[in-house]
Amino acid sequence: MKILMVDVDGVLVHGRPTDGLPLFTYLERDLNLASSLLQQEFFRPYWIGIVTGQEPIEPRLTEVLDRIAPHLTAQKLLDYWFENDSRLDRQLLADLARLKDEGTLLYLATNQEHRRAAYLRDVLELGALFDGIFYSAALGARKPESDFFRLVTDGVGVAPHEIGFIDDAEENIAAAMQFGWKALHWTPASALADAIAAFTQNVQATRL
Question: What is the mean pLDDT of residues 21-30?
Answer without folding.
Answer: 98
